[in-house]
Amino acid sequence: MRVQRYLFGPLEQSDTCWDIAKAYDGQIYVGACSEHTAGGIGVLVKFNPAAEELRYVANMAEVAGEKVGDTHAPQGKIHLSLSPSRQGFIYGSTHCTTPPAGDSMWDPWAMFMDPRRCFLGAHLYRYDPRADDTVDFGVVTPHEGVSLMMLDENVQRLFAVTYPRSHLWSWNLKGRDPVDLGRVSEHYVLAFVKYDDHTIFFSDYYGRLWSLDPMQMRVRSHEAQLTHPAYTEGMRNWMSHGLAGPDGWVYAGMYSYPNLIRFRPERGRVLIEDLGPGLPPESGQPGPDYAFRQGSPVGLILKGDWLYYAQLVYLGPKEAVGSYVAGYNLASGEKRLVGTLESKGFKPLVWKGVLGDDGRLYWADFDASPPSLWAVEV
Amino acid sequence: MSEKKEASFFEEPVDFGRPIVTRGRVFSFPLRSSIRPSAIGDGVCPSIAWDAQNSAFYGLALGEQAHLFLFDSNSLVEEVGRIEGPRPQSGFLVFDQAEHLLCVLAEADGGTRLFLHPVAQERRMYSHMWGHFQYGPIEPLGAGLKGERALAGAFNPGDGHIYLLSASGGLFRLELSKPGVEKVAEVNPSNLSPVLCADPAGGRLYGVSGRGRLWSWGAGGMEQLPVQVPCMKNRDYAALASCLVWHGRSLFGSTAQDAYLFEYRPEEGAMRNLGRPDENTEIRGIDLLPDGRVFGVTATPKAGMGHLFCWSPRRGFSDLGVIHGWQPVNDFAYEPLCIRAGASGDFLIGNGEGRGNVFLYCSPPQD
Description:
The structure holds 2 protein chains of 2 kinds.
Chain A: E1 2-7, E2 16-22, E3 28-33, E4 43-48, E5 53-59, H1 60-64, E6 83-84, E7 90-93, H2 110-113, E8 121-128, E9 133-142, E10 145-152, E11 157-163, E12 167-172, E13 179-183, E14 193-196, E15 199-203, E16 208-213, E17 218-225, E18 239-244, E19 250-254, E20 261-266, E21 269-274, H3 286-294, E22 296-303, E23 306-313, E24 322-329, E25 335-340, E26 350-355, E27 361-365, E28 372-377
Chain B: E1 25-30, E2 43-51, E3 56-63, E4 66-71, E5 77-83, E6 90-95, E7 100-106, E8 112-118, H1 120-125, E9 139-140, E10 150-156, E11 161-166, E12 170-174, E13 181-186, E14 197-198, E15 205-209, E16 213-218, E17 221-228, E18 241-247, E19 250-255, E20 261-265, E21 270-275, E22 282-288, E23 294-300, E24 303-312, E25 316-322, E26 324-325, E27 331-332, E28 336-341, E29 346-351, E30 357-362
Antiparallel strand pairs in B: 1-30, 2-3, 3-4, 4-5, 6-7, 7-8, 8-9, 10-11, 11-12, 12-13, 14-15, 15-16, 16-17, 18-19, 19-20, 20-21, 22-23, 23-24, 24-25, 26-27, 28-29, 29-30
């Protein structure tokens, strides 16, 4: 495994990257957020893999037309919302949870009722790489952030989940014609998985499986709960990563569960399979050993027959904290540890991942300031 | 030692808004109980009744199907049964304080279906220790209200009948012993509020219509009272009450527009505006404890967070905070729809948002 790190040097205020997306022209986009820096602003970063060049293409305060450093919760984040279109655009929306300038902490209770410190709302925007221009379509969710968004090109509509109310919304590509499909989770939704033209899967806070039919604009509960540790009832166990495989299964990583799982609809029900630990227990490698027992699989990437992911340890023994790249062969079921993600002794924590046109796996880290983009050759 | 700074406007203490409820405790329950499975799916809970004899709440869950559920003193959600028929538009429960629970379901086409559920079976058989979960049937009651969409209902202890108020202003009397619905009066249907309340002493019925005017019906017929529910200046055309509850010699009420709490004393003809509890724009429901404390839930449609409040004659309003429970499941009530007092200072809160969930609030013993 060869690892290359691309540091977002100028973004000293940025500390987290939650979303990464590959545009149809092969460029890679990352949402660099300021989650822990009061008054910080989210920045859209573009990476050209061929030239190995980073560009900082849009500042969310400028996009939203908001004054930097005022008393409001700033446009500090681009959460899981980057959505490339076949026309070459990148759609995205802004998100909150960054404290206002001068405050020491983010206060979700001030979201709606505190006129001075509230978040003014999430903006929907579109970046056009040909014109190098970002168009703001205005506030789509007043006083709420957009924690998750995806584009369904069949219906030419965007689907998004808000924070904190967890309502599922749909808009057209200009943020107009809004449809509120209701509340879909106790708290947050972290991943959409498009399964077919009529099915976009997601889960709620307890890992209960839901789907959205973008054609009919209907939401359906599948009365199925995805796998969770035995000692909980599934609390804080969203499907946080997922993709539809070529074999009809959806492969998923859960927020609070260490094993990769998969599920598929069959005869009106949902079959769920636990694919087991990524490494055999007691394999003799302390870091990965801990990770595959206590961590969680993140940043799923499909490359050929192999499903790659990073086994993340965020909280745990210091020597185990990090991201461990692993692979699962869809055909044979073989699992292997590819290696530890690190550069010069620094072990990043990563979230979403994409496959580059150059065959490398890309992840961006969410706990470093400034953050970096990581490219991995396997 | 750090140097003392000069205070300035920009260094004012930070007000962290209104946090979650910390006085008293909130528990959150899915109606598809995590303890005992039920067929109740996603939906809203717009109405709750309390059976003091059995120490049980009854609730109505409306989604693709309508269900009646029981929430007992052990905090178990039990599905009493499905109420047959197509998906209703709205609905509510009326308890006759004796042995029957009336389920009123208003249809999208304007009609209203009535169902009766006898509670004697669960009073007799319901055993928390042994798990004798047996319920009486939920049976259609007569032909319902043809062409009339019921808005509200109340049991009148004065004459032992249940009364229903329809959107067209009809006031109907229902005798459970010989099923039949009789129209007894007409109310001004303009801007009619979905509230109805009976004075337990005198047996008069009270409601709100028009520009927030209280009306009263009883011996002597219909009477428009010369009092209005509180509202902001020049907004009486939109005045809408959301709840009326009788307590002692007073009628306590809340408004769905502008979120006012009020007290009306019929003997004195005095309307008292008690004010607004918090920043939300609607009071969705209120109920009282025997000590005179009013507890209520507020919300702002499609925005904001559901709050609980308390008003006491001694201390006035307390915004108790955002309705959030950690146990047995972690959940928020952003759109509470109703609240009903039970025993020991407990309240059950029905939630909207289609999540099929309720919240139990255990209030503090003193304000």
